[in-house]
Design goal:
heterodimer; A: mainly beta; globular; B: about 110 residues; mainly beta; six-stranded mixed sheet; three-stranded antiparallel sheet
Chain lengths: ~110, ~110
């Protein structure tokens, strides 16, 4: 089944220790998104890629970076995690050329100690 | 400004009762509207979108441009409908503008 995969599902890191979350997709979609979702809140878009074009949201902290080495993979790097960065991180993909459904991964739950 | 409003954070109804989850939007262009659902411990997934005009799991949603609404309805709620529901508006930059979500609880 074509899908969006996120690894790891659970990540524990220490305050200030860099962490990388990964996302892969078998849907061959052009657009990939990273969202942060805190408890009982709507997903908050951090950034998205249209192919290799990176689009950062204005209010995404510099602490959050991303890489997309190829169509299938996308990474979220948190350079110095703070306690406030503890959240569920969701990866999603969609086709390009219009407004399409977004397909979500299961998420990575990040805990910051 | 583009905005999606879901006025109810929590909605609790009895099994078999009708359900209506409200969604209002503000958008200057022609809106593309979606309902996404997140069941407990499952990934966020599309429930329906207005252009498909489908009924999914007994749910329907009609776009009312005059009232700028896209309310989600089901005539007879089932316990498995308990979940978090998000209304979302697609913009021209491949992004979704999300409502705050409504937690639906179906009581037995």
């Amino acid at each position: 089944d074509a899908m969006v995969i996120q690894n790891p599902r659970y990540q524990v890191t220490q305050f200030g220790k860099p962490v990388t979350l990964s996302c892969s997709q078998t849907l061959n979609h052009n657009v990939m998104y990273w969202y942060q979702q805190k408890s009982s809140q709507a997903p908050k878009l951090l950034f998205h890629y249209y192919d290799k074009d990176f689009n950062n949201e204005a209010d995404t902290p510099d602490n959050f970076q991303s890489r997309r080495p190829n169509t299938s993979f996308c990474f979220l790097d948190i350079r110095s995690p703070g306690l406030g960065d503890a959240a569920m991180y969701l990866c999603a993909t969609s086709k390009a050329g219009g407004i399409h459904e977004q397909f979500f991964g299961p998420g990575t739950r990040l805990t910051v100690l | 400004a583009q905005r999606v409003t879901q006025p109810e954070k929590l909605l609790s109804v009895f099994k078999g009762a009708p359900v209506e989850l409200k969604c209002n939007y503000s958008y200057s262009g022609s809106p593309e509207l979606f309902w996404y659902v997140q069941y407990s411990r499952q990934r966020l997934q599309l429930l329906l979108r207005h252009i498909s005009r489908e009924s999914i799991k007994g749910f329907t949603a009609d776009l009312n441009k005059g009232e700028t609404s896209f309310h989600l309805k089901k005539p007879f709620a089932q316990e498995e409908d308990s979940a978090m529901y998000y209304c979302a508006l697609g913009d021209s930059n491949y992004q979704l503008i999300w409502g705050a979500g409504t937690k639906l609880i179906i009581k037995p």
